[in-house]
Amino acid sequence: MTEATTTDAPRDGRVPVTVLTGFLGSGKTTLLNRILTEHHGMRIAVIENEFGEIGIDDALVLDAEEEIFEMNNGCICCTVRGDLIRILGALMRRREKFDHILIETTGLADPAPVAQTFFMDDEIAAQLRLDAIITLVDAAHVLQHLDEVKPEGVENEAVEQIAFADRIVLNKTDLADEETIAEVEARVKAINAPVQILRARNAEVDLRQILDVGAFDLDRVLKDDPSFLTETEHQHDTTVTSVGIELDGEVDDSRLNAWLGNLLRTKGADIFRSKGILAIAGSGRQYVFQGVHMLLMGEEGAQWRTDEPRRNRLVFIGRNLDRDELERGFADCLATAGAAA
Amino acid sequence: MSITTPDQALSVAWEITIDDAPVALSARGDLVAVAGAEGTVRVLDAAMGAEMGALDLPSGALKAQLSPSASHLAVTGPMGYALWRRADGRVIVRESGAWSSSAAWANDERVAIASGRTALVFDADGEELWRTEPAASTVTDLAWLRRGRRLAVAAYGAVRGHERHTAQPVVTYPYIGSHLALAVAPTEKWICSGNQDASIHIWRTRDGSELTMSGYPEKVSRLAFNDTGFWLAADGAPDLTVWDFSGKGPAGTAPRQLRCHETITALAWRPGAAGHLASGGHDGTVALWHATGGQPANRLRPVRTLDDVDSAVAALAWAGPHLLITAHRDGRVRAYGLPSRTAL
């Protein structure tokens, strides 16, 4: 974190929120206990969906029961978590300031409504920042969850939780052999190519790697492992995969809006997450966006340096992704595209 | 203590500070109750601001409701509720566990309190009389109709009407959406819900016919009818909207738009039929309006604003037509005296 990257967007004072997902037995409670007991000097509020018995003096722990609400905005996949809206709303009215909020979901929870809650409620969006979705994976047992065949129309929760993750904590590596671990990592990367995997035993991870990491910090993620950008294997695949695009040039604002708007409107149900850092023609600042299904939130990021190439980077994670179509669609958004055609 | 403002028409009658961030005010009879986010609750004498009672809800408070003659106080919060009796200053019911969004008094003898997905009805001694069957999700708001014979319960997906001592609803007003606030017109002709999806949904009680006011920029979480039931004020945008519910109702009409606050954090009608409304904003400003003046679709300006407190307005309440109570996030609770019934 010492390196000053171009994506060091100005801190906005909003309280970061970490979402902790993972199957029962993946080590969420152990990790939560670690976060609450380690001397990090932060005041943390925890919203628990799984009724653990955590009582720590220095943290506020609130119980919640998952309540998924549909939104009447014509967006078929747009659901939010009513319980979180209520609880976060009450937390924000307290005088005591929390440095961090942690939401622990149940093992079978769909991360989409959790993430969408941060897009759909203005009060929450103004005061809280979804920092990262952290998914715990049990190295010894996750393959059987991933391979579980679900009835038509029912999502495999393990796949979803991996697809939505900004960081994967690959836990219980002491209980799996190296061959299994390698296979798990390959499977995770096949679903969510840009995700960073942290190996752990007994949920022992550096908390700086999971708290306040800035999932918008796509730049660093791509720098770590840009290989998936050129990967071309799965083109029409019903399994969940990632498509990364990297293209130099300046993007025309209105073409981008038309393309991205149409893409998410028509394919949003299949696109779990989208993220990007773009160079918009006429703007000296990066445009940083991230989306969950059909919802998209964008903001200005860091200033482009004068000598820096205007490089656009996007990632889509989802089902039935067509790399060629996505690449062509985005290339047409470049400000120079019209002249070339 | 009396701080006189330059304008003699309005003066600060009293001011106190509580050691909490207020979230709710209730003013009934000669009392004012203030509840804080961390659960501090104070009962004050409306005229002087003197403390008349105190209780705590350890896990925090969301709402406070005094009974009509101020004989009892119900306080609800994220992890439970409490019922306080003035006669002996005791908490006669205290329950913790479930989310308790709101309480509603039918009269001094009957209070409904939301607890998780259920609403419970207690008598003046704190005895539970009956409860509703669980709704589909956590109850968000409650209101009484028919002089306390019917209880309206709002939760995700519907507002349900329960007759006394009847767990099952006798009438259901469905609407797929998260109902954040419920308002029943004093005429009982209309039931309205403010919604997470940035709309107001309206049912005519006579036949259940529906109407949706959509297109608000933000969720609608505050709704209030004035005393006559002819006017509904709502948040959901930088503009407060005031809808005309007289005659056939607001279908096809445009609301008055009240522009003052960037973010509306409180609203309260002045008792009476004059159409006077108080609103509060995130920047600490309190605005007083003749909210029913002008023509439909008019954008109105406040009659006056009070802006010497730079902490967000947390709640507003009228202790009768001559006393406006304001609570700010920094803990300040203030009473403004308004001598004239007709002027603001």
Automatic annotation (TrEMBL), chain A:
Top-level taxon: Bacteria
CobW C-terminal domain: residues covered: 240-334
Catalyzed reactions: GTP + H2O = GDP + phosphate + H(+)
Cited SMART domains: CobW_C (SM00833)
InterPro entries referenced in this protein's UniProt entry, alphabetically: CobW-likC_sf, CobW-like_C, CobW/HypB/UreG_nucleotide-bd, P-loop_NTPase, Zinc-reg_GTPase_activator
UniProt GO MF annotations: hydrolase activity; nucleotide binding
UniProt xrefs under SUPFAM superfamilies: Hypothetical protein YjiA, C-terminal domain, P-loop containing nucleoside triphosphate hydrolases
Keywords: Chaperone, Hydrolase, Nucleotide-binding
CDD domains: CobW-like
GO cellular component: cytoplasm
Family: Belongs to the SIMIBI class G3E GTPase family. ZNG1 subfamily.
Protein's name in the database: Cobalamin biosynthesis protein CobW
Organism: Streptomyces spinoverrucosus
UniProtKB/TrEMBL annotation, chain B:
WD repeat residue intervals: 264-299
Name of one Pfam family that matches: WD40
Presence of the UniProt keyword Repeat in the record: yes
Highest taxon in the source lineage: Bacteria
Keywords, in A-Z order: Repeat, WD repeat
InterPro entries: Quinoprotein_ADH-like_sf, WD40/YVTN_repeat-like_dom_sf, WD40_rpt
PANTHER family: F-BOX AND WD REPEAT DOMAIN CONTAINING 7 (PTHR19848:SF8), WD40 REPEAT PROTEIN (PTHR19848)
Protein's name according to its UniProt entry: Uncharacterized protein
Organism whose genome encodes this protein: Streptomyces spinoverrucosus
Lineage: Bacteria, Bacillati, Actinomycetota, Actinomycetes, Kitasatosporales
